Amino acid sequence: MSTADTLFRNARLVDGRTVDIAVRDGRITSIASQSPVAAGETLDLAGRLVLPGLVDGHIHLDKGFVGDDWKSHRPCTAGFSVRERVKFEKEALAGARPIAVRAAALIDLCVAQGTTWMRSHVDIDLQVGLRNLEQVMAARDAHRDKMSVQIVAFPQSGIVTSPGVAGLLDEAVRAGADLVGGLDPAGYDADIDGHLDVIFGIADRRGVGIDIHLHDGGLLGIFEIENIARRTKALGLGGKVTMSHAYALGEVPRDVVQRTAQLLAEAGVAILTNAPGAHAFPPVLLLRDAGVNIFAGNDNIRDSWWPYGDGDLLERAMIVGYRSGFSTDADLAAAFDMVTTNAAQALGLPDYGVAEGAAADFVVIDAQHVQEAVVARPRPRDVYKNGRLVAHGGTVVTLAR
Q: Which pLDDT tens digit goes with each residue over 216-230?
């Protein structure tokens, strides 16, 4: 008879089966009906639905005001401007509590909702240098028992227009950032090739992935998207490059999107969307059907850019579905995939999912299936990281090391 640290009995999987899940040393060792396993602890899930740990594909741990005093949103003075938003953000963050406090509070908020992995963009610029990176890396390490964090070195204030940032990005990757980021090569830096030369050069030289914020719209944005796809294919970086937002894909005619989607699929470039507010956003099903990995994340949560958000990725999946007009079971399942398997693929997560050999990261909820999970976002939720309970009833559980 095999042994386990914990045996979760009567777990209902997303495929409808009711099984026992055995966990040893933080990994799922078996999934079977009425498993003959000797376990140190046995928990009866009573037929509750077991979902893989949710994956937030885009968040900013250094920007949020969760864990701080309420900061009233400050609108741009003459229509949305990335430069003005960056200015307002820096002014607000100057009086904010330390990143260690705010990042910890945001991590706990997300953990309590069922997130077990996230990709955080961290500002790298001439003003902050690598300080934000160092503090987010410290927060990542301090909370590793309940959340796994990937870090993107993000040039929020540009690269070409901020001489010296290119070197800082390279230094950030050498210091431990997992990916190098970018921001609107045309709209912010006004130098598409100069901007992309830097970030693709770092990625190629250091062997890391890329995640580019791309707000530039219309045919200009499409030109940049196709440029990025071609560079990705030329350097053999398929599966390691993401474009976050890519609003242009939601602003141009369908035939243009189809042409661009083919390039993205061939290059292996993923698209991240959070289906934001009043913005157009990429057509999810069109891209998916073309073979593009499209996934989701919360992006800004209660910061200088956006006053909304509670870290709930099931709600994010619902927002994507609602704004996309999803109504069939297949469509709702596609929205769910965007915060689970698709996001895990984009982040390159090894051994993800409720499967034998995978890390025992999962969420237990009262729902019949993933469709109900998306539309109802049921609570309470029990959240497990490496087989250990890390959140129950909306509250993070303190772990003894």
A: 999 999 999 999 999
Check residue 13 and report its DSSP letter.
P
- Say if CB 180 and CB 228 are below 8 A apart: no
Question: CA separation (Å) from 234 to 186, 200, 229, 280, 347?
Answer: 21, 11, 9, 30, 21
Backbone angles phi, psi at 298, to 5 degrees: -80, -25
Which residues partner with 294 through β-bridges? 271
What pLDDT is stored for residue 224 in this prediction? 98
- In the chain, which stretches have pLDDT less than 70? 1, 399-401
**Could you give the dihedral angle defined by the CA atoms of residues 113, 118, 124 and 130, in that order, rounded to the nearest 10 degrees?**
90
Output the CA torsion 265→268→272→275 (10° steps): 0
Cα of 119 vs its chain's centroid, Å: 5
The answer to whether the CB of 333 falls within 8 A of the CB of 95 is: no
Q: Give burial (CB, 10 Å; 0-12/13-18/19+) of 41.
A: exposed
The C-alpha atoms of residue 79 and residue 45 are separated, in whole angstroms, by 51
C-alpha to C-alpha distance for 167 and 160, rounded to whole angstroms: 11
Residue 399 has what pLDDT? 63
What single-letter DSSP state applies at residue 42? Answer: E
Give pLDDT, residue 162.
96
Whose structure tokens read 């899940």? Answer: 21
Instruction: Give the amino acid at 216.
Output: D
CA distances from 377 to 22, 35, 313, 389 (A): 26, 30, 9, 20
Q: What is the pLDDT of residue 401?
A: 47
Cβ–Cβ < 8 Å for 154, 61: no
Closest C-alpha to 180, from 161, 163, 197, 162: 197
Tell me the pLDDT tens digit for each residue of 229-288.
999 999 999 999 999 999 999 999 999 999 999 999 999 999 999 999 889 999 999 999
Residue 401 burial (C-beta neighbours within 10 Å; 0-12, 13-18, 19+): exposed
Measured between alpha carbons, how far is 173 from 70 in angstroms, rounded to an integer?
33
Q: Report, in angstroms and rounded to the nearest whole number, the Rg of the chain calculated over CA atoms.
A: 21
Q: What are the Cα distances from residue 61, in Å, to 7, 64, 109, 195, 396?
A: 34, 6, 12, 24, 18
pTM score: 0.97
| Cβ atoms 354, 45 nearer than 8 A | no
